[in-house]
Amino acid sequence: MTELTTHPFQPAGDDADDAFHEECGVFGVWNAPDAAALTALGLHALQHRGQEASGIVSLGEKGFRSHKGLGLVGDIFGDARVMAMLPGRAAVGHNRYATAGETALRNVQPLYADFAFGGFAVAHNGNLTNALALRHSLVRRGCLFQSSTDSEVFVHLIAISLYATVLDRLIDALKQVDGAYSLVALHDGALIGVRDPLGVRPLVLGRLGGEGKSWVLASETCALDIVGAEFVRDVEPGEIVIIDHDGVRSVKPFAHTSSRFCIFEYVYFARPDSVVEGTPVYETRKRIGLELARESGVDADVVVPVPDSGVPSAMGYATEAGIPFELGIIRNHYVGRTFIEPTDTIRHLGVKLKHSANRAMLQGKRVILVDDSIVRGTTSKKIVEMVRQAGAKEVHMRISSPPTTHSCFYGIDTPERDKLLAAKHDVAEMARIIGADSLAFISLDGLYRALGRKGRDAKDPGYCDACFTGDYAIPLTDLEGHAERRPALLALNGV
Ligand code: AMP
After folding, report:
1. Which end of the chain is more exposed for a tag (fewer CB within 10 A), N or C?
2. Is 24 a catalytic residue?
3. What is the DSSP string of 112-171?
């Protein structure tokens, strides 16, 4: 889901920069009492995937009900009166993450529409890369868009499809979109889950105990755990699962192709207690730390994670290097991720709000700091400065991902290329800019080794790593095709 900032009601301008700043979490329940309450719990476990807004659409005896709000899940759905307005045994929900741009309620998902075949709600995680082009042609055909999110094209494509069944209309719509999408959708006959043909974003299927035919779809397994659902399997790339009173069936409307799951989910985005595509995120992060220590070891007294994202890889690093692991930086959990803050001023302030130095662990020491990524460099710079001020003798920064050199167009929040530190500077310059005595990133092959491969196979990487390589596996139709945006966007992103 992303905002289409060039549609007629929202002229391109400064905000056009914000067209790619979205990440999301989705959740769905079929055939369970209090489906909306389970969905609220699931969304709570997926809060890390989006903190800006949340919505739930439930389906009860009297039809569909919806509640959406801006803010955290607990604030929106923590009120029993709100939950009482969402009766039913089926529901879908969505968490939205946007750093800037339009924060209107009309963009909060799930999107809902009344079609000839009945009500239909859909929640989308990912970004569509031809949404602008589709939207332009749909508007010319008379479709009236209600929001500025790319996800709304699904709704119109389904509405105008000439196929008879909901499933065929959905397939018709999916065949017209390019991009990354994990969807959960609900109509009065079924809960539906979909992953795009390359499976860029995650989606898992779970089963609730008790009545035997209660099912859950979620972005990550941590959302199954919170509702006590048993993990059944990942929805496969290009697969549609249809869950109805007969159980679960699967349709694969796309030609088979090698999958490209987002490698950054392992590095940073997914919750560490989730298991993604059979691989536990926590263990992967520890292995990344281990590889990093092998590749770029340095003499030091202590390994310190930048919490929370650097913790598992710092543990792996410390074990492999045989250097003590210490919490030399303490995180204040009562502030959000710094990255969410929309302006540079607040973002700078945010780092101080979020982290403080644990002086006793740093004073007089040679410190290895481990974080998951450097994007703009704001966090690293502030943390290095903070650690030095706390009396560290040396500060060596180690990063558990390769340099982020390219923007993501498939659903991870990254700034434009010219704001990515690694797009403009080599490692030595970056070390100087962040003020570290040394800086090293894990190699691309090292990252793939941590995922159990021999290295990166350029012919079939198996993961989307475009943010580190610029290898964009899904066409960037809007970026390449839109005359007015093309020069600026191409220049910004080096595509
Ligand atoms: P920066 O300060 O711009 O270099 O951002 C790097 C910090 O932001 C790291 O500590 C990461 O943990 C975090 N980070 C990296 N990518 C993202 C993202 N897509 N969304 C939110 N936070 C991120």
Report:
1. C
2. yes
3. EEEETTEEEEEEEES-BSSHHHHHHHHHHTT----SSBTTHHHHHHHHH---SSHHHHHH
Residue 212 has pLDDT above 80, yes or no: no
The CATH classification of domain 21-260, taken from the options 3.40.50.300, 3.40.190.10, 3.20.20.70, 3.60.20.10: 3.60.20.10
Q: Evaluate whether 401 touches 442 at the Cβ level (below 8 Å).
A: yes
CATH 3.40.50.2020 domain range(s) in the chain:
280-455
Enumerate residues lining ligand 1, CB below 6 A: 268, 306, 309, 337, 339, 371-380, 412-414
Residues of the chain above pLDDT 90, percent: 81
Token reading at 279:
């691989």
168-177 confidence digits (pLDDT tens): 999 999 999 9
467 is in an annotated binding site: yes
Q: Ligand 1 centroid vs 229 CA: distance in angstroms? A: 31
* Atom number of ligand 1 nearest to Cα 382: 2
Q: In the numeric block, which tokens belong to residue 249?
A: 């069936």
| Options 1, 4, 24, 73, the catalytic residue | 24
Tell me if 143 is assigned to a ligand binding site: no
Q: Is the CATH number 3.40.640.10 carried by domain 280-455?
A: no
Ligand 1 centre distance from Cα of residue 115 (Å): 40
